[in-house]
Each structure stands twice: as C-alpha cells, then as structure tokens.
Amino acid sequence: MLTAPFLFIANWKAQKTIAQVHEFMQHRARLNELMHEVNAHLIICPSAEALSTVHDALTQYKNNLFLGAQGCAPALTGAFTGQVPILSLVELNCSYCIIGHSEEREYAGETDTSVAVKAALLLDQGIKPIICVGEIQEEYDTDTAKDRIAIQLAPLCESLAHKTGTCYIAYEPHWAIGTGKIPPIAYIQEMFTHIQQITNRHISKMTIKLLYGGSVSESSMRDLRLLKKNSPELTGLLIGNASLELQNLTKIVKLWYV
Ligand code: PGA
C-alpha cells in the first residue's frame, strides 16, 4: 500500500521580501527532487504579496511542491482591509491555507469563530485548511491546555458538522513558537488524542490529519523523531524559522528520515 506523503509546511511569516522569495524559488528543482525521493510534500507559505511569485515558480513542480497561504479573509471577497480574498487563493491554485495561527490571533484579531467561518469557506473552494490550535505558557503551566484546545475547536466543530473532506489541525503551543522549546513527546501525543476525541465526536464525516508545529529545528529533530515513531497519526510538521534558509530546511528533511 502506498503511504501518503508526509507534509513539511514552510511558514515564512513576514520574514522574506518578494526578491528573497524569488531567490529561494530558484532552488525549486532541487527541493522537488528531494521531496520526491523521501515521498513528502513541501507546502510553501509566503506572505500575501509573494503568493503569486511562488505560484509562478511552481508551474512545473506540482508533484511535490505546493502553495499555501498564511491566512485569508472570512469571505470569498469583501470589505476586509488587510486580508486576502479566498477567491484570489483559488485563482492562484493555492492548495492549503493556514488559519488561526497564534500570531494571527495576537496581531490580526483572528478568533475561534473567524477560524470556523474561514475553514468552511476554504473547504467549499477545495483549499485545505491548516488550523492551528494550542495553549499559551500560563495554560501549559496550569495544566489547562486541553480546556483551551476544546474552546478553540468548538465553533469549528459546529461549522464543519455536515462537511466532508480533509482538514489539517496543527497542535502548535504558543509558548513553543520561536523559542527553541518543545513540549515532551508524551504531552504532544496526549494533545493529539484530545483533538482526535473532539473531532471524532463532532466532525466524524471529515478526515482530520494532525500536524505539530513550534520550534521544529535541527536540534529538536531527535525528540520529534520519537513522536514520528510513536504517533502514526502525525501527518506533517509546521516549520517557521528553520524553513527560511534552504540549507536548514533540507537538513531537517534529511534528519527526519535518518
Ligand atoms: P517556529 O514557528 O518553527 O519558528 O517556532 C512555527 C510557526 O509559527 O508556525
């Protein structure tokens, strides 16, 4: 049986200019080959103004490299200053869209409700939502992460109650993003089980795939490989800082398969 390709999701945030994105994309053939060799997909998520740069660069590399957006408006088009119309993502053949990232929640007013609205609209347009959930440091310290995740998922479970298709849920603890810290592997597994229990109960018609994000790097690879070994439900990794440089990114991909 063919196994589904593992996903490496490069979240470039606002870290690259258009010129830098263009430069990175010169290496697309090499990246495509590497992804093909390991049976993985690389989802490249640049900031909004560089989406078309990545789209144009990927025209001949559609087997293993895909375009992802970092967010979208809660409407196909509409009066939402600063947001990307979902129909533009359709025009750009965008395959994935990250929603509910903790930075969007913190700086752009993303809420659990807007995430739920966006997820349903994206699915209707054939774009796979990558929904980020996770607790803040204080919730981790007080052992209330499960409560936070249940709250984050509640509107989503309602909006997707009658939908079919595939949705990606990334467990991304806020306190692990960009800090070099990752939770204990058993803890991540516990959160995966928690997410699965909620989604199985409320959105059982959907296929839910689980991702981990937060300080994925060369130094966290050894621990994360344990997660890979013990959690077959892990479908991919969301990578911020360590995805910016080609060398770091390729090193991570290679280490994943050691
Ligand atoms: P990081 O970011 O890998 O730099 O921690 C991950 C993310 O924010 O998606």
Short key terms for the protein model shown above:
single chain; 258 residues; alpha/beta; eight-stranded parallel barrel; binds 2-phosphoglycolic acid
What is this structure's SSE topology?
Elements: E1 6-11, H1 18-25, H2 28-38, E2 40-45, H3 51-57, E3 65-69, H4 86-91, E4 96-99, H5 102-107, H6 112-124, E5 128-133, H7 137-141, H8 145-159, E6 165-171, H9 185-202, E7 206-213, H10 221-230, E8 234-239, H11 246-256
Parallel strand pairs: 1-2, 1-8, 2-3, 3-4, 4-5, 5-6, 6-7, 7-8
Helix pairs in contact: 6-8, 8-9, 9-10
The structure holds 2-phosphoglycolic acid.
Residues 11, 172, 177-178, 213-216, 238-242 line the site of 2-phosphoglycolic acid.
What radius of gyration results from the CA coordinates?
A: 17 Å
What is the count of DSSP helices, taking H or I runs of 4+ residues?
A: 11
Query: What is the count of β-strands?
Result: 8
The biggest beta sheet reads: 8 strands, parallel, barrel
Shape by Cα distribution: globular
Bound molecule kinds, no repeats: 2-phosphoglycolic acid
Q: What helical percentage do the residues reach? A: 40-55%
